[in-house]
Design goal:
This protein is an alpha+beta fold. The protein is built from three helices and five strands.
């Protein structure tokens, strides 16, 4: 999981949607992974660009009744399944948006969730 200090103010986020090079099949596979998680409320997908490095960033929003340890376990489950989707070694990061309010607001301002419970 990303440490809150790893996202510098120079980090540029871009929307990761099929029109920007991600297939509908990928979004559906990610949706399926997220749908299996019990405490996940919403999930966002963006590209994280730092200098020339590009990775996928999953922004995960959990119900407020869960502990940080429970959220961390869910993130690890999601990451283990998501990394199995990629054979080319694309870096995938995940971050709990409950703990990073400013990042949450930034992501919500540029895209809607690809996964939303209920």
């Amino acid at each position: 999981m990303l440490d809150k200090n790893e996202l510098a103010s120079s980090t540029e986020l871009e929307i990761a949607i099929p029109e920007n090079g991600f297939s509908t099949e990928l979004i559906e596979a990610l949706y399926g992974i997220c749908a299996k998680q019990k405490i996940l409320l919403e999930a966002y997908l963006v590209l994280k660009k730092v200098d020339e490095d590009v990775s996928l960033l999953l922004g995960l929003l959990f119900s407020g009744t869960n502990t940080i340890d429970q959220q961390e376990q869910e993130i690890q489950l999601i990451l283990s399944e998501v990394t199995n989707l990629f054979s080319d070694g694309l870096a995938v990061d995940a971050i709990c948006l409950n703990l990073h309010t400013q990042l949450k607001e930034s992501i919500i301002s540029v895209t809607s969730p690809f996964y939303k419970r209920g």
